[in-house]
Queue: 4 jobs
Job 1
Amino acid sequence: MRFEFRTGAWLGGILTLMILSGCGGGDAFTDCDGAGLCVARVEVSRYSGTLPLSPRSGFWTSAQGPRPVTVELGPQLITNPQWPNPSIKSVTISAARSESEIAIRLKWRDATRDLGQGGTHPYPDQAALLFPLDRSQDLPPITMGAEGEMVNIWIWKASRDPALALPPGGAPASAAPGQAVEDLNAEGFSTLTRQAHQDVLGRGVRTEDGWEVVYKRALDNDDALDARFSGSTPMAVAIWDGGNRETNGQKGISGWIFLKFI
């Protein structure tokens, strides 16, 4: 299954989401799929056993593996500094679940490998997933949520990935294997907070023309700040190209994507 759409359609969809996210009722986690609030749908099939953390695992590319969906990324025009022309224009998403875990794989083209090591390359390549927390509310603003509308954000940075980031002298990076992803929360712009307890694992690999990253977490836990995956859920994606000096609000963003449990 493959979804592609024009930038005009993407921007119109984002504006519609901004209008509709704050009004109405019902379960937005369900309504997202049928009410035109989500710009794409990714099927999350169920598999047995442990889901692979490695982006290079044949699980992700086999005929029996998760179906990839390509989603367009558009400009960030909601807050200053606006970013009308992000480098990364699309991302391919695959997702899977087991009885206890969910794993999501992103793949995108990026001409440069940016680890954010200072000098002429101060900004790392990054990719984030965003999930709404409260399923009794409508969808929060796509950017960073809003006051009273908290979101859970999983962000991978090339600078944190032990397999990629080597500081001067070549010593191993400080992050433990699999902990290249930070588990965060936000309730609007400039409210990003790192959770005391980090529950998300992640790993990235550099390909010939870009990046592949896998995020993995338990479907559920007792942390009130974490998204829960008891069923289908909306998700948004943001990607930063460090080589294009992208950081903070300067990024490419998707509309809401529906992770459909099947």
Job 2
Amino acid sequence: MKTYRVVLLLTIFVVACGGQPTPAPTATPIILPTTAPTDEPSPTPLPPTATATPEPTATPVPPTATSPPLPTAAPIPPTATSTPLPTATPIPPTSTPIPAPAVERIFFAPGATQAAVEGYLPTNATHRYVMHVAAGQYVALDATAGTTGGGMRFSFVGDDGTVVKPMGDAHLRAVVPTTQDYFVELVSDVGAVNYQMSVLIPVRIRFAPGATSGEVEGSLAVGDVHYYVLHAQAGQRMIVDPSATQGQVRLVISGADGQVLLSGRVGPPGGTFDGVLPVTQDYLISVRAEGGTSADYVLEITIPAL
């Protein structure tokens, strides 16, 4: 723009000078400004009016892969379900259990003091017997083998579990501690065996308080035996005087340890015993009917005080 204005001025000046001569007026000098003209800013051309071109509709991008519908979430089960444990099925035994042996009760005849049983035991078999015994009674048990070659052993145990005799040899001499049932378990020891077992529970003789003597009486059928027992101290003197009012009797006296003090004589008196006792223990007195007849008797026992 500045250049354009200078050229225009120069052109006007030349034309003016090239015409007819005219008295030149006093030229008024043109005083140019001392300061440089300020460049005016060139007008900024207006941009062409933009034609509003509609934006293309965006084409949806097809999915790269068909997205299958998400499966419906399955409900999460509880962390633990209280399932009852199955009942255990019992395992059947590999062999048929051996039933417990039956128990046979031993009874005494009225007035009798002994009884006997017999039987047969196969190999490794058991027979059980039971009897009622009062506290303080003396019990003698003996089991013997028959003609077969086996052996036997037995135990003697109270119904409350009291062991009077553990399993062992087939003989017992003992005083039971309490009144109750007692069980005998008889076992074949070596092979099968026929057996006989005798049970003796004698009548206990007790003197009246402060007394030193007493008497018992009884009746015996042919071949019968009555048994008595009494307790005495070592060094005490004991006198046993039997008298038979009918028939004949035989008297036998022995200690519970098996020591025989009197084997007896047959006759109306039946033998009298008068001796000092060697051991503190129970002493057994047996009275047997002899001579093939029944017998009635009176037995007087005296143990003087020491």
Job 3
Amino acid sequence: MRPTNVGSGSTDYELTSKLWDSGSRGRSRWMTLPDAVRQLWFLLTHARTYDIVQFHSLSWGTLVSPPLLHLLGKKAIFNSTLYGSDNPSAVWQARRGHLAGRLLSHFDAILAISPMLAEDYRACGFKNVACIPHFMALPQLQQGCDEAARGKLRQELSIPSDATVLLFVGSVIKRKGVDLLAESFARLSARHHDLWLVVVGPNSRAENLNYDEELGRAVRGTIDGAWAASRAIWTGTVSDKDVLARYYSVADIFVFPTRSEGLGNVLIEAVTAGLPVVATNLPGCTDYVVADGESGYLFPPENVDALTQAVERLVADPVLRARMGQAARAGSKRFGFGDYCRQLKAFYLSVASIRT
């Protein structure tokens, strides 16, 4: 797509309306041959409308596009968003990974959303690599929520005003660590009878094709077995941003025991909401958002004991929660939309100047 005012100093851009959606959501990331052909045909027939193409998903259609774009005098960017999936170390280990890795090297530049992803690309020999983390996309959280509004929201959810509420936002899949969260909550709920859990995420495959039904049953079974089901709220998929912001406002602690991420947009939302965070320590990823010991706690992957200890420390100390929440909100200013636009514009202009 070609912004109409790329030469200006503005952070708002007008884009053409021609977009490509492979329609492969819910299927394998490796698009079928017909999908790849359609994508290449789209790029060919709309060549006059763009100078640079940025790809957001890894597929054979994506991987074979740069040579065509170079023939057309265009540039190709790959946007890497998930460590263990679209970074070169992971790509090379996958089936036909050697071929995929070689094709990946034909991109003019790599845009990584976290230092962890950028470092892997550089370590694997890629030259034009930029790290531009995502911006905070839920401005409602910047407004905060006063105690009266917070109390009203809790009343609507039947959560006691004096309860301590843990919040998780994400898909019910193994990668997100909801099984670790359930085990930790089950342990803590036996010792803290005022502890509640709110899970914002799909409840069935009808809501999201990636929903892991077996894992979902296991997670609920763990909580039911601890006699804590009455203190767990499963919201289902929340698409309305105003409603999502309300869930952040009723929470006291954000818990994110993910096993693998690119950066974790929900972490940015949580710190913007002023919540102390307990998250898996993924160097170059989660520690970019959460300062361990200052705005929350980072625990070793898969370590339920460490997760539980970190959450309990915050549950038992409201003053500590408040101090870390304030630090979290102060640190969230790094993720402003204006700064993101300026960095992205500079990156695009640098790619445009690359000689092929």
Job 4
Amino acid sequence: MTSKLRHLWTGKQACLIGIALFLLAGFCFGQPAVSLSPKDGPPTTKLQVSGSGFTPYAQIDIYFDSQDEALAVSDSSGAFSQIAIQAPKSAVPGNHWVSAVERGGHRANQEIFDVHVNWTEFHTKDMMRWNPYENVLNVNNVGSLQRLGSYTTGAWVDSSPAVVNGVVYSGSHDNNVYAVNTRTGSLLWSYPDPVGAGASPAVANGVVYIGSFDNSVYALNASTGALLWNYTTGFSVQSPPAVANGVVYIGSNDDNVYALNASTGALLWSYATGDVVYAAPTVVNGVVYVGSYDDTVYALNASTGAILWSYETLSPVQSSAAVAYGVVYVGSTDGCVYALNASTGSRRWKYETGAKCKYGGEGNAVASSPAVANGVVYIGSQNGTVYALAADSGTLLWSYTTGGEAWSSPAVANGVVYVGSYDGNVYALDARTGAKLWSYATGGGVSSSPAVVNGVVYVNSDDGNMYAFGLPKGLAPQPPKRPDPKTLRPDFKLKAVATN
């Protein structure tokens, strides 16, 4: 073989080897991929970002929308894992983009992070009827709220809604439990209760739990409404359930508080009070706090049902307790709001909504359950007034009088208090001053307690409707559009984070 031919052959061979290596590299470090854990959650959610298919030992910027949050370095295989970032507090509901972009290169990939908030049960998971994540509605724009839609049931609805993963769940006195799409207002399913489903639901791990006038507690598939199990008590069940650590806690009109296995409905324990239990149990730090019509507030061991302490008021306790700052806040039909030490049950203070606390309350009964936020307790009274009390002292900060009895329990979100009244209105009040910012007249009394999530207020009415209120198009902020990775600008001050 001549030297010229040998040169050509060697060059061709080198070319073929180069192509093979390129293809091999493309095979091993092909199209980049990005994964998130979790894939959804409220603003401030901490998430882990992992990736593969990048250039080995490359610097990779991790963006939330257009903000550079972290700098990763890929390993020898072109992968990185569990880089921690946080969804910004300002991230509004909807789809946001997490981008992984090689610094100085052209390789990138993106994944969606869905920002949304759930209101899972009557008191929500924090047990204070407070949504700390709301960033759409505020004191400046809530006056522009309008009805987005309503779903009509066959009877009055005093159930307080739960809102989870784009579905609102409520019971109605037409003997049905309803699941309605929050975006379209269309019915997803209904479950026929043979006697009545006026209670408020709780939703956890894909299951809807709700009590009924037929003496039962029901567990329904949240997606389909299919019955999973039911547990029969000795009388009707009007208490809203609370779900914690795989256990459903609920009161019954047979005078008992029950703890049921959330997966099977098996009885774990029960505790007998001296009268019916309308209130929702509140579960915090291994303790169940619940009021009874025997005039008493109880603290029970969440694992065993053993009594830890009790506090006696002057009249039945229908209000569900809120627990914050180591204090139990609860109303009584004697007309007073109480603050009790969560560990001992000793009274910290009481506030009289009437002339004095007395049996029956004489028109000042407090069956409303408190909301607690930013050092303030918000609660309604039979006398039609909503009160704001200093959480540490019980001092009156302001009061607002509606045109009817305020059985509804307030909800607080982003500086606004939302509450219903038996005058048929839903109100939005300035949480700081009590000034009325907005109201809407339904066709019946509103004893249902609002849920406020994702820039929408959900509440039910005795006119038979489930309502949703939100800002009109153009006023409601929208998440940013999907960014082009080529336009994202790295933060050169970031230091590389080691992959986990």
